[in-house]
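seq as requested:
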Amino acid sequence: MNHLAKLDRKFVWHPFTQMRDWLRGEPIVIVSAKGVVLCDVRGKEYLDANSSIWTNLHGHQHSKINSAISRQLKKIAHSSALGFANEPASVLAKNLVNAADLKLENKNSKLSKVFYSDDGSTALEVALKLAYQFTLRTRGWSSAFRLSGNKLKPELQPKFLSLEGAYHGDTIGAVSLGHINLFHKAYGGMLFRTDKVMAPYCYRCPFNRAQPERNDARKYRKCNWECVGLVEKKFLAQNKKGNPYAAFVFEPLLQGAAGLIPQPSGWLGQVTEIARNHGALLIADEVMTGFGRTGVTCHVDDKAIANVAKNPAAAKLFATGRVGITPDFLCVAKGLTGGYLPMAATLTTQKVFDAFLGEYEEFKTFFHGHSFTGNQLGAAASLASLEILQTKQSVLQRTRLQKWLHEELQSLWVLPNVGDIRQVGLVAGIELVKNWQTREPFTLSERAGIRVCEAMAKRGVLTRPIGNVIAILPPYCTTQTQLRKMISALAESIDECFHQSANKKRRQK
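struct tokens:
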């Protein structure tokens, strides 16, 4: 075993990993990378099929981002944002606001302020705390809060609504916002309560009367938007309590860690309108969906590519922008720096910002911050990444990649253990089942997703499953040939893990 692997096994505790399983084998130790290709300590090469956990947008060792970081290093790497401003963070804030701008007539509804933090979890923590304080102040509950000895009555506590199965990070506030049972069982005693409502999951929706087909379940669903009706009912029920929801929290267009679950066309517009009508703030978690990951349009063909070539500036970088929704809070991280450095941002409105203005002794300050907030290296990398994203070359490449991904995924429908293939832009989730005709899922103990990903690694393709769902999120620089290898490795691995083993059982009988 390589000495680095030995050091890892002896000293490192990996996230979201059962370490007993980890210690049974020799880990892949990555030592270098270029573009889409990762290289391990033994010199073996792998294709990075999930953009290094959904972060690396432009490929590894991108010359423009490397140069931006190098230039910044010759100036300063980090100085405190507590009491000081800095050059790249100031410019980046302006560019982020411009990237999220929908040209609204009402300037108070426009995203115009940026609060920096470190990662997706902290970006959501910021939005949560800001929404909580904003609600107290705008509903006139701050005085009641102070008069009662800083203990607000339970019935006046600002309440939050999010989607069933949602993941918004792993800090205490972010876990509270999410609704993954595993986390709530592990940390339930530390969390505060938030409400949940049914998420649209067309493939396993109890209201979908359609029989399984060899197609994305969103395209053949048969329902009456019962999931939207449940959202309306939830808001009405909370209003009757005299404490309307402070905010509705959602990932736009698809839920990531819940299983790469896409929302059917029209769902997001309907539920956000319901939330607005009931006075709730909108908190959009674009940690995964932001910076072009959800594509330019729903469907890409040669005509769409030609249109993009004529007007690349029309391409929206955020999922909310794609569907014309402006949230009160836009949370970004992961791809913000192009996958180079940990950095996050929470964008919000002038109206929210103004609620925190006051005299020093009023203590209306937003009491929250991090040591590396707005650091210069992260901001420099982010500026370079944003510049790349907005070039005609990048927009065209992303559009072509979306088309190639759709075409390559169609080859997987012949596999009986593929139940659903769902794609949103440059995100694909392939749900594995025991039998596509019954949608019967694999049990946790069968480790279906893990086994397939291990088989893919042997074929030189790296990704990570979400339960029984295989995630494919290629870096934007992925070539058609590289993408074909990713999907071929997936197909061969599924066949190896399930179809061949089934044949073996039949032969034994």
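Residues 87-393 form a domain with the Aspartate Aminotransferase; domain 2 fold (CATH 3.40.640.10).
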